[in-house]
Design a protein that fits this description.
By secondary structure, the chain is of the alpha/beta class. It contains 20 helices and 6 strands. The chain has helices at about 5-15, 20-35, 35-50, 55-65, 70-80, 90-100, 105-120, 125-130, 200-215, 220-225, 240-255, 260-265, 270-285, 310-325, 365-380, 390-395, 400-420, 430-440, 445-455, 470; strands spanning about 185-190, 230-235, 255-260, 290-295, 335-340, 360. A 6-stranded mixed β-sheet has the order 1-3-4-5-2-6, sandwiched between helices.
Length: about 475
Amino acid sequence: MLDDAGLQALREAARLSPDNLPLRRHLADQLLAKGYLAEAEAEYRAALVLAPKDPEIAAGLAEAFVRQSAHGQALAVLEPFLSIPGHAPRLGVIAARALLGEGDAHGAARRYHEAVSRDPSVADADLAARLTPQPIAPTGPSAAPGSSWGAPGPSWGAPGAPAGGATWGGQGGPAQQPAEGPGGSQVERSAVSFSDVAGMEAVKEALRVKLLLPIQQPELFKAFGKRAGGGVLLYGPPGAGKTHLARAAAGELGAAFVSVGLSDILDMYIGSSERNLRAVFDLARRNRPCVLFFDEVDALAARRSDMRQAHNRQLVNQFLAELDGVDQHANEGVLVLAATNAPWYIDVAFRRPGRFDQLVFVPPPDHAARAAILRILCRDKPLAEMDFDAVARVTELFAGADLKGVVDRAVEAKLHQSISAGRAIPLSTPDLLAAAQAVKPAAVREWLGTARNYVMHANDSGAWDELMPWIKQVR
């Protein structure tokens, strides 16, 4: 419910005059400016129906998506406009923010520098500070094939990319040498397990019952007609540990692990993306038991009703077909995990039984979990007497990634002291408290603010009921 009388009047005017494009666009712009992101998204969608080729409306919708951490959706909106020569530089800056959110720093830098070179007024100091300086990639015939919205960067699951082990929940350790992998995806053996994940007992138990126990106790599950396999959709704020949980599930089972990123699937040539998707499922089936993990799955499984291009809808259809398998035993032993920050954008067909029929909320860590995460992160460092509970008390709504940032900042400060002293000075509680005061995490609070819109206004099915206790923390 809008609490702004001016916006309420504009919305009522738009309701009475639904085809008034300038009015609807003005309403969407005002909603976006005042932070009503879900409402702004709805108005921009309605405006885009009236003017599907308007780049400013597309920019507003993409901006609303980016601010809701729906980076894949933002890129899908921008793609047809970015392919037009001489497109508005503002579109390039928004695309850069979305690409950075997807983990493609190279593509983001290319987009940003190209946009600013054409119009310096669109420069974004905060975005520029987050981008590693990169040479602008070549365009035209000499450019390497890749996505039409950014130059190809390091593949998330490709050789040379970080192994992506314990980012905050434990000692990752070196993974075994990846095996074969079409499309850039690799078969790994995870070096972490649930013991390396602090807290999240309810989440771990859900994964055990749904994914692990059918393989660990096959006779018992067979007696009840349950087979090993299926899908779980992990969702929650950025940095809460969804990827780490997926690796830990594979390590707990001793199964193969295949991590799939957007760059492993998406291809500019029609039909290639579907072939890449089929290839990673075939790879998982050949290495069963296998945990097949899709990160940022909302970009591959978006609502078909939102898509304007037939080949994007065909990719969703292919994904659904692979989840079903050619017969009832095709995916037996293949445990499909997916993670997203924006579950509300995923096509409802993916939540049908036998697909991603279980949604598991990965919350930001509570007090006890924060203390445990800090203890794990500090266990291999020289320590004085530590009070991790005291640090946990001042880090409410810090995600696991934020806590790692606190420890990293404290360690850097302590290293400078140790270098000056000529000896190792142990890390202490005041060091962590000082670092925590310097870190101002916003990702969890912003995500909960977005989730609040869906829980309060788009929850007729009750799918988001479990978020209710969390959104009450948003003021």
